[in-house]
Amino acid sequence: MSTIDLKSGYHQINVHPADRDKTAFVYPFGTFRFKIMPFGLRKAPATFQRLMDMFCRNLPAMAYLDDIIVSSPTFDQHLLDMETAFLKLKDYKLLANRSCHFACSRVRYLGFWITSREIEVDPNKVSAVQKIPPPRNVKRVQSFLQTCS
To answer: Where is the Reverse transcriptase domain (predicted)?
Structure first.
């Protein structure tokens, strides 16, 4: 398995020239428009996820926003799949961070440890909740429930 963490997420998607006026904002030095998709646009997450879904098409991969995982049944197949993934990254003009992990038997992905046989919750993600002492009154129960939601 390999994980690919894309650099700058939404900022790798260009805003169509006809839509740039919709991203305009006023600053003391003038009015400016975005050429790349900024965070905060209403449809930005859906647009980026749609791009990732197109990227993963015909590839044994899944993506959640800018996190991609590629999983193959054998090492030789994985090398071929990664070559395809790298070519697609180039075609889509997407850049990856250095924090990618390649050809691992166990990877951390979206708060889980994933192997070819199982998926486990990352202990680092739940340790804070596990350390909370048991609530002893109504106020503590409400506080705990608020923490968990």
So the answer is: 2-114
The encoded tokens of residue 68 equal 């991609």
- Say if CB 15 and CB 37 are below 8 A apart: yes
Which whole-number Å values give the CA distances from 88 to 27, 47, 95, 110, 137, in the listed order? 38, 18, 11, 22, 56
- What would the pLDDT profile of 39-92 be if each residue is shown by its tens digit? 888 888 898 999 999 999 999 999 988 899 999 999 999 999 999 999 999 999
Query: Largest Cα–Cα distance in the chain?
Result: 59
DSSP 20: G
Shared-domain flag, residues 103 and 137:
no
What span, in angstroms and rounded, lies between the C-alpha atoms of 141 and 149?
12
**Residue 125 CB contacts under 8 Å (≥ 6 apart), including other chains:** 111
Count the neighbouring beta carbons within 10 Å of the beta carbon of residue 19: 13
pLDDT tens, residue by residue, 108-124 = 888 899 988 899 998 88
Q: Among 102, 110, 91, which Cα is nearest to 51's?
A: 91
Look up the pTM and report it.
Answer: 0.75
Residue 120 pLDDT: 92
Is residue 128 helix, strand or coil? Answer: helix
Whether 91 and 68 map to the same domain: the answer is yes
Domains of the chain: total: 2
